[in-house]
Amino acid sequence: MSKARVPWKAVIGGSVGNLVEWYDWFVYTSFAVYFAASFFPEGDNTAKLLNTAAIFAVGFFMRPLGGWLLGRYADRKGRKAALTLTVTLMSASALLIAIAPTYETVGYFGAVVLVVARLLQGLSVGGEYAASATYLTEATPRGRRGFASSFQYVSMTAGQLVGLGLQIILQNTMSAEALDSYGWRIPFVIGALGAAVVFYLRRNLLETEAYDEEEREVEHQGRGTIKQLLAHKKEALLVIALTMGGTVAYYTYTTYLTKYLSISAGLPKETATLVSFCALFIFMCLQPLAGGLSDRIGRRPLLITFGIGSMLGTVPLMTALGGVTGFAGALVLSLIGLVIVTGYTSINAVVKAELFPTNVRALGVALPYAIANALFGGTAEYVALWFKNNKIESGYFWYVSACAAVSLVVYLTMRETRDAALSRAEQASEDAVAARV
Question: Is the Cβ–Cβ distance between 346 and 150 less than 8 Å?
Fold first, then answer.
């Protein structure tokens, strides 16, 4: 592996912003069990969660639009400018949820406010993933990109951990009645304030050399356009296919896991939350290790390991998790699932960025990834609850396995991307070395 240094200032700056973005995104589902009745008072608990899960999915369907608009913006105006804009949108959406009126006050208008907030979040996150992935990848020397880009999922998971940690604190300091009434608003207020701090941090980031190089040598007109993306149709379709299995598995073992342990396994909410917190903390620590490993052995071996593990392991793992009776068993099984998912999460961002040239890299990552997430990631929780509501819960486990099987075929046939040159300077250096040999 290359001895080149990791640019920690860029990695930390991008990751801290990503943490707040994903804290706001995930805290919605973390606290849904408390605010569902505030906006949907009729029906049983599963029906209420179905309604909030449907609104959660709505945010995902805005992600392709956000991926297109903000991916184009990142390719034309710069990675730094796009990162600043996405966190601004996320702050506004968190504030909207924090002040949303309840059904008791204004009827279903409160649910409408939730939908608007989720639409803004979807727009923001649709661009955030690509801007962050592109920035972290371009800002890091070849040979260290897998390690550096893995911090995208470190920060994503850290954001979720902050949300879960806050939930644990509130569960132990507030009554259930207070949480259901107003306590669930607290994390959204914190998210909005945190985003304001990140706005300042991101304004002081340096632009990547790859983008600066493109800015000097290529006119704006052709950058970040659909026409340019269509010149790389194969790569765009590849992003959709390789994301399919990974995003379903990721949301199954992260955002849906707490609900599954609570409503299916019958664990107390507090125990289910603690299991998720501990499992996600270990999962977060695994990301740089796996990312660094990919710099040594390549990206494909990790993706293939994930594909096989998820295809064969989901049904027995989820079945066993549905029968756990305590913290220890639930934690061990959850960790097994998350270790498998690490093969995808630790490197998926860098793989996608390495597939495209600089002039369309952010859009090439953003739009296909957002489409895959809208179709498979955003609907995962809703599909899971639909299967449960129709008394065929195990059908969802097979659905996850089938998605992983499709992605596995892609992993087995795609090219290795580890040594891709991401700029003209890198390509020139590579050509010079080849000429000397």
Answer: yes
- Write out the residue range of the structural domain in which residue 386 sits: 14-422
d(CA 152, CA 318): 26
Neighbours of 34 (CB within 10 A): 21
Model confidence, pTM: 0.83
Give Rg (Cα) of the chain.
21
What's the domain count of the chain?
1
Among the listed residues 20, 4, 64, the one whose alpha carbon sits nearest the alpha carbon of residue 209 = 4
Q: pLDDT digits over 311-358, tens only?
A: 999 999 999 999 998 999 999 999 999 999 999 999 999 999 999 988
The answer to whether residues 348 and 242 touch, using CB atoms and an 8 Å cutoff, is yes
- Please count the CA atoms within 13 angstroms of the CA of 420 that sit on its side-chain side: 21
State how far the Cα of 291 lies from the Cα of 281, in Å rounded to an integer: 16
Amino acid occupying residue 392:
I
Confirm whether 436 is domain-assigned: no
Q: What CATH number should be reported for the domain holding residue 387?
A: 1.20.1250.20
